[in-house]
């Protein structure tokens, strides 16, 4: 089946695992998605990875999704991936600082890597229980603030405040290192 460019046909063709349609979507939107990610991240390789992640997710979940605005969906998805990449980069820096290691250091020594992780988790364990739990749910389990609020039966504002306090405490701990 040859699919044209309407969103209904894209959805139908994707659900039918039509690789030509997927390629058409990729060719149509890759450049704008990459430009957005590269502008946000200031790193070409990471931007390419983010775009790739979005397309992989689109293909993997093609049966589950019904997209009403493809361009908006793809651009929002790549924004989310870029934010996730920035957050991961910041967390890696923080982990390194907490473990007395330079962020540019390569970890060929497994003992050094273990020490780095131990220092990071020691700092996290020093947080109050509610902050530690929220931090873990957000950073390690990738739960959104709204999902955390729902699971814990608290407001999103409370989650935001606790997360802000946790990050502030971790930054302060890292500065002391």
Fraction in helix: over 70%
- Biggest sheet record: none
Structural class: mainly alpha
The H/E string reads HHHHHHHH
What is the CATH architecture assignment of the largest domain?
Answer: Orthogonal Bundle
What count of domains describes the coordinates? 2
Stretches where pLDDT is under 50 for at least 5 consecutive residues are none
- Beta-strand percentage range: under 5%
Q: Evaluate the radius of gyration.
A: 20 Å
Gap between N and C termini: 62 Å
Give the overall shape, derived from the CA principal axes: elongated
Q: What number is the mean pLDDT?
A: 80
CATH topology of the largest domain, which one? Arc Repressor Mutant, subunit A
Q: How many strand elements?
A: 0
Give the CATH H-level superfamily of the largest domain: Winged helix-like DNA-binding domain superfamily/Winged helix DNA-binding domain
Commentary on this structure:
The chain has 177 residues and is an all-alpha fold. It has helices spanning 7-15, 19-41, 44-60, 70-98, 110-125, 129-139, 145-152, 156-176. The N and C termini lie far apart (62 Å).
List keywords for this structure.
single chain, 177 residues, Rna Polymerase Sigma Factor, Chain: A, Arc Repressor Mutant, subunit A, 2 domains
Outline the secondary-structure elements:
Elements: H1 7-15, H2 19-41, H3 44-60, H4 70-98, H5 110-125, H6 129-139, H7 145-152, H8 156-176
